[in-house]
Amino acid sequence: MPEGIYCNKKPITTEEDLKALLSDTRGTKYYQEMMELEVDREKLWATIQKTCKSRTQTWLDVCARCGLCADSCFLYLVNDRDPKQVPSYKIQSTLGEMVRRKGDVDNAFMRHAMEVAWSQCTCCNRCAMYCPHGIDMGVMMGYTRGLLYSQGFVPWELKIGAGMHRVYRAQMDVTTEDWTETCVWMEEEQQDDWPGLEIPIDKENADIMYTCNAREPKHYPEDLAEAAILFHIAGENWTVPSEGWEQTSLSMFAGDWEACKLQVENVYAAIERLKPKRVIGTECGHAHRATVIEGPYWAGRADGQPPAPYIHYVQWVAEALRTGKLKIDPTKRIKQKVTYQDSCNYIRNWGLADTAREILSYLVEPGYLVEMTPNREHNYCCGGGGGFNGIGKFRPQRNKALLTKRDQILATGASLVIAPCHNCWDAIRDLEEEYHIHIDWSFLKPLLIKMVIVPEHLKPKEEDDEE
Q1: pLDDT tens digit string along 200-253?
Q2: Where is the 4Fe-4S ferredoxin-type domain (predicted)?
Q3: DSSP state, 291?
Q4: Which listed site, 27, 98, 286, 433, has its alpha carbon 20 to 30 Å from 388?
Q5: Please, are residues 74 and 381 in contact by the beta-carbon 8 Å criterion?
């Protein structure tokens, strides 16, 4: 069967097709059809010839199979040092084989490659730090995902996620109306406690345009409210766009590069329309990677930069604390053992380790921060990055992958993990539910609101008692 009703090579482009795929509970029919999906070998080889550039070819050729990347991979470590989990083996046995066979691979090979690409690698890029040749297996595995997606071999949830971006320009079915109504609702909810607080929509020439993760308006609208409260306290001139507010990219996890381009262009169009001085993204690692690191290249921007300076939320928090826009009540600083989860995408891949520690110096009482081992850019992936968290088919592998982070946290003795990244936050939540190690976990925003000194003029006026 060359093409299935649910599992096929066509991207999701309509709401009707999206709902049809969603109706296939847990992707049961989708994966049944995948068993029979034919590989278009000529197209696969043509795609490789067109897109496998000199860097990737050189990496495949220069890899000495020395195995020095092995211990860098938490999935290798947590799977009893299985040689098949060595990063170089994983890439050579998938992408390397596709290239060597000139695309002449069958269905069984592609299904195996799909399992490797999405359940044996989170594209965390840690292996690149330890390769003597500087080979980045994570980058190559991301490229491999794109080849697999083009042939229809992609996990059900990520086919849906990429379709969401194509249909809604968001990773979830949050329409423009849904988004703006949520902004108005959260603004109204805060008025009693924060008189004068606003969530300005489509304000031109603001100092800040704020973008977020679609999970926030969909499931955690209080996160948007917390961002608004902190901007309010800091006295920021800010706005959110009515369209182009969603900065995440499940398309990137899926390997749907065309949808990645559509998504980031939507954000960039909002920047060009509203002309903010700069843009601040929410507490999300892959969202930063998608809009700031990879996004300019997907959008074909010659300078490799977004249309305006674009920073991660931790950069704004550090700046606000440093300049006194936000001031912390020293009596409310954290006085319990706490550790920090370094997100792969804004710590290892964007260099914000020092910025994160600067924030901790304000929030945590001296002596209570206990670093994980290893930490900073050497820290391990949370265990659920790269889309791993959301794939039901590979949940047993994901749960096992959480063991590395579990053991790191337990070794610190910390009872609180600060995790300013959605995937990290989710993985640590699931880790607690799976292994019951008795920890709490938090984004930065709720911690800041508990500790920040509120200027008198922003506090609600007490009404005179009436006799």
Answers
A1: 999 999 999 999 999 999 999 999 999 999 999 999 999 999 999 999 999 999
A2: 112-140
A3: I
A4: 98
A5: yes
Q: Read off the tokens for 283.
A: 């507490």
In a domain, 399, yes or no: yes
Q: What is the CATH number of the domain that holds 55?
A: 1.10.1060
Q: Which helix (H) or strand (E) holds 340?
A: strand 338-340
| Number of domain units in the chain | 3
Query: What count of residues does the chain have?
Result: 467
Q: What percent of the chain has pLDDT over 70?
A: 99
Q: Are 359 and 419 in contact (CB under 8 A)?
A: no
Instruction: Please give the pLDDT value at position 463.
Output: 56
The tokens describing 315, both together, are: 């950069």
Q: Exposed (0-12), middle (13-18) or buried (19+): which is 272, by Cβ within 10 Å?
A: exposed
**What CATH number does the domain containing 365 carry?**
3.40.50
d(CA 445, CA 282) in angstroms, rounded, equals 10
Does the residue 370 lie in any domain? yes
Tell whether 186 and 46 lie within a shared domain.
Answer: no
State how far the Cα of 459 lies from the Cα of 192, in Å rounded to an integer.
10
Alpha-carbon distance 455 to 377, whole Å?
Answer: 36
- The answer to whether position 83 is within a domain reads yes
Q: What pLDDT, in 10s, does the model give residues 88-119?
A: 999 999 999 999 999 999 999 999 999 999 99
pLDDT at 60 over 70: yes
**Contact in structure between 332 and 453 (CB atoms under 8 Å):** no
| Residues 237 and 334 placed together within one structural domain of the fold | no
3-state secondary structure of 162: helix
169-191 pLDDT, tens digit each: 999 999 999 999 999 999 999 99
Structural domain for 403, as ranges? 329-451
The answer to whether position 458 is within a domain reads no
